[in-house]
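S2.1 Query sequence (16S rRNA (Guanine(966)-N(2))-methyltransferase RsmD)
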Amino acid sequence: MRVISGTARRLQLKTIDGLDTRPTTDRIKETLFNMIHNEIADCRFLDLYSGSGGIGIEALSRGAEEAVFVEKNPRAVQCIKENLAFTKLQDKARVMTDEVVTAIRKLDGEKPFDIIFLDPPYHMLEEKRVLEALHTTTLVDAHTLIIVEASLDTGFDYVGSMGFEIKKEKNYKTNKHVFIILKEEA
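Output structure tokens follow.
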């Protein structure tokens, strides 16, 4: 896994061994960042279920002002910290060793994030739990873009009842990115 573009371009990132994380492939990461490239500069980025930190580090490398990484696995947290030091992006990063909903509660009260990315374990309804937690916080406003990486068969028909709407969806061979925003007030 490598950083695709920006100040840390071409640098190889570490990942942890085993099946505890599922790093987003370089091809999917490149497609994702091509879709959101206009929103990255100077943005405040929240990377939930960070794994090795590849998505948040890519955002920082491409000009994000700040990234907050949330990961509960201590081995993965160490990997994130090493990758941040290696890419020299640690000054723009904050790493939280917490369960995601706990971290959201801790962050509540801070200013909104511009982009929130989450890549939870598949088929466990974690994305629904996270969206439920986010929708009542200060972390999301009318300008926040929430991106969920999920399996192709994951449904999001419930988001409307939480005050969100699906802006777009990008399907790949085995997974998808769902782009979610707050519903506009009528």
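The domain at 26-182 is CATH 3.40.50.150 (Rossmann fold). Residues 26-40 form the longest helix (15 residues).
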